[in-house]
């Protein structure tokens, strides 16, 4: 597969947080709307998510909370 040919590239399927992950994320959200880098890394390890995924979840949650 040639990575320069966009026709052969397959988009990764979206992974949604499961119920137990959401429970933890929502609990943390009640305490802080803006988790530190260290907290995002810790949450990512605890929940099996990347810190970037945790960051995006908080961004989306803040946006929907408004």
From TrEMBL:
<protein>
    <recommendedName>
        <fullName>Homeobox domain-containing protein</fullName>
    </recommendedName>
</protein>
<keyword id="KW-0539">Nucleus</keyword>
<dbReference type="GO" id="GO:0000978">
    <property type="term" value="F:RNA polymerase II cis-regulatory region sequence-specific DNA binding"/>
</dbReference>
<dbReference type="InterPro" id="IPR009057">
    <property type="entry name" value="Homeodomain-like_sf"/>
</dbReference>
<dbReference type="GO" id="GO:0030154">
    <property type="term" value="P:cell differentiation"/>
</dbReference>
<dbReference type="InterPro" id="IPR051000">
    <property type="entry name" value="Homeobox_DNA-bind_prot"/>
</dbReference>
<dbReference type="GO" id="GO:0005634">
    <property type="term" value="C:nucleus"/>
</dbReference>
<keyword id="KW-0238">DNA-binding</keyword>
<dbReference type="InterPro" id="IPR001356">
    <property type="entry name" value="HD"/>
</dbReference>
<dbReference type="Pfam" id="PF00046">
    <property type="entry name" value="Homeodomain"/>
</dbReference>
<dbReference type="GO" id="GO:0006357">
    <property type="term" value="P:regulation of transcription by RNA polymerase II"/>
</dbReference>
<feature type="domain" description="Homeobox">
    <location>
        <begin position="8"/>
        <end position="66"/>
    </location>
</feature>
<keyword id="KW-0371">Homeobox</keyword>
């Amino acid at each position: 597969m040639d990575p320069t040919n966009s026709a052969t590239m397959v988009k990764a399927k979206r992974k949604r947080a499961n119920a137990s992950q959401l429970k933890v994320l929502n609990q943390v959200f009640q305490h802080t709307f803006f988790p530190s880098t260290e907290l995002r890394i810790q949450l990512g390890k605890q929940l099996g998510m990347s810190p970037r995924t945790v960051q995006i979840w908080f961004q989306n949650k803040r946006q929907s909370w408004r």
